């Protein structure tokens, strides 16, 4: 994915909206982004460009040998090696964290705890972690129809997932997006699906593979979040900051 280094590339996106459900979705988005973390995916194209323009340096540095580092010599080469080594380290951090997710079977309570720990201690994560946490926050606040879904453009699967839900509480059926809200913490946007798709095509079109202004964007459900009542109570006690503030209006409802 063709992405910029800056974690704040999407800060220009407005978090003001008239629909209460969209405002609530944007609150969820902000909550996920309140955990500072680096996304290796946002660095991928930058690293690949460095590798293409300095192929011998990266080929030799891959051996991790002291001799290679001495031969490569000058300070600029050493800086490139350090950047590449750091990048490989954060990629491995994400890989290692994810490899622990499904040990012993799917356990959403343990997984969300692992992701929160990953953000807190390792400070790394990609769209998968962001989306999973968004769906978990929704579930903690009483929303039962949120799904984790993969994005498709003209039938082509994208290396990107989002959190999606229907505003009327019905299950997402992979088809009708007219009543759907998309939460994409990785890019920092949350809105009705039609608006998010328009933003992808007109603002972030270079972030995805072969996405054109006229492309048809769809989402296909991959997973959903399930917590027991006891687990929900524990999560709310452990993480009160992820619980929506009490108001006269119920979370994700018009009134």
Describe the overall structure.
Helices cover about 45% and strands about 15% of the residues. It has 9 helices and 5 strands; from the N terminus they run αααααααββββαβα. It has helices at about 20-35, 45-55, 55-60, 65-70, 75-100, 110-120, 125-140, 195-200, 230-240, and strands at about 145-155, 155-165, 180-185, 190, 215-225. A 5-stranded antiparallel beta sheet has the order 4-3-2-1-5, sandwiched between helices. Helix 5 packs antiparallel against helix 6 (about 110-120) and helix 6 (about 110-120) crosses helix 7 (about 125-140). Mean pLDDT is about 85; it is low at about 1-15.
Characteristic key phrases:
five-stranded antiparallel β-sheet; disordered N terminus; 255 residues; 5 strands; globular; alpha+beta; 44% helix
Rg (CA only): 20 Å
Strand order of the largest sheet: 4-3-2-1-5
Total helical segments: 9
Structural class, judged by helices and strands?
alpha+beta
SS elements, strand count: 5
What distance separates the N and C termini? 40 Å
Major sheet:
5 strands, antiparallel
Helix and strand run: HHHHHHHEEEEHEH
Strand percentage lies at 5-15%
Q: Roughly what percent helix?
A: 40-55%
Task: Identify low-pLDDT runs.
Answer: 1-16
Q: pLDDT average, as an integer?
A: 86
The geometry reads as: globular
């Amino acid at each position: 994915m063709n992405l910029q280094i800056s974690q704040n590339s999407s800060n220009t996106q407005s978090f003001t909206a008239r629909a209460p459900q969209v405002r609530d979705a944007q609150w969820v988005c902000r909550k996920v982004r309140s955990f500072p973390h680096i996304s290796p995916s946002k660095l991928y194209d930058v690293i690949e460009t460095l590798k293409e323009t300095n192929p011998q340096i990266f080929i030799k540095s891959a051996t991790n040998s002291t001799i290679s580092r001495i031969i490569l010599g000058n300070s600029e080469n050493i800086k490139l090696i350090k950047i590449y080594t750091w990048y490989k380290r954060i990629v491995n951090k994400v890989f290692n964290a994810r490899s622990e997710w499904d040990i012993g079977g799917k356990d959403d309570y343990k997984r969300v705890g692992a992701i929160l720990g990953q953000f807190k201690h390792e400070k790394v994560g990609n769209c998968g972690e962001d989306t999973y946490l968004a769906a978990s926050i929704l579930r903690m606040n009483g929303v039962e129809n949120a799904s984790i879904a993969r994005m498709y453009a003209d039938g082509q699967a994208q290396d990107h997932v989002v959190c999606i839900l229907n505003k009327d509480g019905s299950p997402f059926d992979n088809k009708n997006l007219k009543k759907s809200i998309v939460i994409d913490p990785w890019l920092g946007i949350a809105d009705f699906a039609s608006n998010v798709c328009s933003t992808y095509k007109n603002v972030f079109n270079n972030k995805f593979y072969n996405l054109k202004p006229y492309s048809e964007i769809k989402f296909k459900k991959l997973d959903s979040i399930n917590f027991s009542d006891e687990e929900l109570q524990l999560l709310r006690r452990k993480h009160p900051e992820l619980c929506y503030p009490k108001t006269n209006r119920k979370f994700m409802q018009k009134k």
